[in-house]
Amino acid sequence: MVLHAGDWADVTLLDAVRARARQLVGVYVNNDGPDLRARLPEVAWVDLDGLRVAVVHETGPRTGRERRCVAAYGDSDLLVFGHSHIPWDTVAPGGLRLLNPGSPTDRRRQPHATCLTARVAAGRLGEVELHRLPPR
């Protein structure tokens, strides 16, 4: 399964990822046009073997992020988000896990392009690994 927290840039990328993934859960973002917005939600919710997951692009500034995310997505176990292109892995008070995979294509101010892999079994999030990708 692929969880994609946005920055599609083009509907052809959405189609390419959907063709390769067994299942895709993705969201549209602030810069996406009507063609992507027609095919994707702003917030996606999925149950992964009992793990309640939300996917969203924007969570606001770093300061106060956990508090805001608990208020908005506190009924989830895991929130996957994007926008900043900066890897993030924290647990908010109450147990909500927040993950940002960074970006595999636009590393911005980061030293490496990145993505995350995670294992889910029996409703629990297991190993989460940040991968540094080779330069393009």
From TrEMBL:
It holds the Pfam family Metallophos_2. InterPro entries: Calcineurin-like_PHP_lpxH, Metallo-depent_PP-like. Residues 1-120 form the Calcineurin-like phosphoesterase domain. SUPFAM superfamilies: Metallo-dependent phosphatases. Belongs to the metallophosphoesterase superfamily. YfcE family. This is Calcineurin-like phosphoesterase domain-containing protein. It comes from Micromonospora carbonacea.
